[in-house]
Design goal:
Elements (H helix, E strand, L loop, with lengths): L4 H13 L19 E3 L4 E3 L2 H5 L34 E4 L3 E19 L2 E16 L11 E5 L6 E3 L17 H28 L11 H8 L7 H15 L16 H14 L11 H14 L20
Antiparallel strand pairs: 1-2, 3-4, 3-7, 4-5, 5-6
Length: about 325
């Protein structure tokens, strides 16, 4: 039993390579079993590809998310656990303020009865309360009430170190100037990136050779079915690697959509080309996870894999 068609094809190739094609009867099926078994009355031996290749723990096939899964997700699904009272937040239109928590604000509307208008209270609306700087010292700090259905306009302030940013004033011009300066800075960065990209495009890079038998064998050992987007990213990345110019490609995707599989195939292709590959990750935990994953996947091939992180001692380095 093989997890996918690639494993089935590779197993049949090995079966014939070792000369077993004329001995006994082989039936290969697509399916997932935790382990094989022996059924003596029928003289049948059932074996899984995981037991033959010895690379992976058997897992259930991955269920693909619906193409509309993300778009149908509610815009109101905001994780307020990331916000605590006193945190600095940024409102898209009003700038930096201090988050004071959630508050139920009652609604009120006029109702006309017998030629008279009376105030009628409706059920309250939950709002984010944000405090801003007072326009002068004689006035109290104003508060902005943002309905939860507009919470996408608010994000947590992210700054360097533990610097406390000055609060903006409601209706002030400082936030508008800050946004304008940021837009100019973004254009400058974009222009610099274009210059760098033009310089890179004029240089000659190292073209990796086409896929070898080991590359195909390695990719066929992937226990999941590649998603269409994942396969397009894999093909595009390898096309870039085989081109005689410096490669510059960004792979984006949500959690669980197989970005690591794209990276490990590219890394394996570069290693088979005689090049050293470095995988840079933002945390030591992620470095350990990738190290374990790469070591398990590439265990059957003559490729050395090691780990560098702050947990290693000088002796280990």
């Amino acid at each position: 039993f093989c997890n996918n068609d690639g494993e089935r094809q590779r197993f049949e190739e090995i079966w014939w390579e070792y000369g077993f094609g004329n001995t006994g009867t082989l039936h290969v099926h697509i399916g997932a079993l935790s382990r094989g078994f022996l059924f003596e009355p029928a003289k049948v031996v059932v074996v899984t590809d995981a037991e033959i290749f010895g690379r992976y723990k058997v897992q259930r096939p991955r269920r693909l998310k619906s193409p509309h899964a993300q778009t149908s997700k509610s815009l109101l699904d905001i994780n307020f656990a990331d916000l605590h009272e006193g945190d600095y937040v940024v409102h898209l239109q009003h700038g930096i303020g201090r988050y004071l928590g959630l508050q139920l604000v009652p609604k009120a509307q006029g109702q006309k009865t017998n030629d008279k208008i009376t105030a009628v209270k409706e059920p309250g609306e939950e709002c984010l309360v944000i405090e801003y700087a007072a326009s002068d010292s004689d006035n109290p700090a104003p508060k902005l009430y943002v309905p939860v259905n507009e919470a996408h306009l608010v994000s947590k302030y992210v700054g360097a170190g533990k610097i406390r940013p000055p609060l903006n004033t409601l209706g002030g011009t400082r936030w508008a100037k800050t946004k304008a300066q940021a837009a100019v800075a973004v254009r400058d960065v974009a222009a610099e990136m274009l210059q760098i990209q033009a310089a890179r495009a004029s240089q000659v890079g190292y073209p990796c050779p086409p896929d070898t038998g080991w590359q195909l064998e390695f990719e066929n050992s992937f226990i999941y079915e590649e998603t269409p987007d994942q396969m397009r990213a894999i093909i595009a990345a390898k096309k870039d690697m085989e081109a005689p110019k410096p490669m510059d490609r960004l792979i984006c995707g949500d959690v669980g959509y197989g970005k690591t599989e794209v990276a490990i195939r590219a890394a394996f292709k570069a290693a088979l080309s005689g090049k050293q590959v470095a995988i840079l990750v933002p945390t030591t935990v992620l470095a350990q996870q990738h190290y374990n994953n790469f070591r398990e996947r590439i265990a059957d091939y003559p490729v050395s894999i090691d780990l560098l992180s702050r947990y290693l001692t000088r002796k280990q380095l």
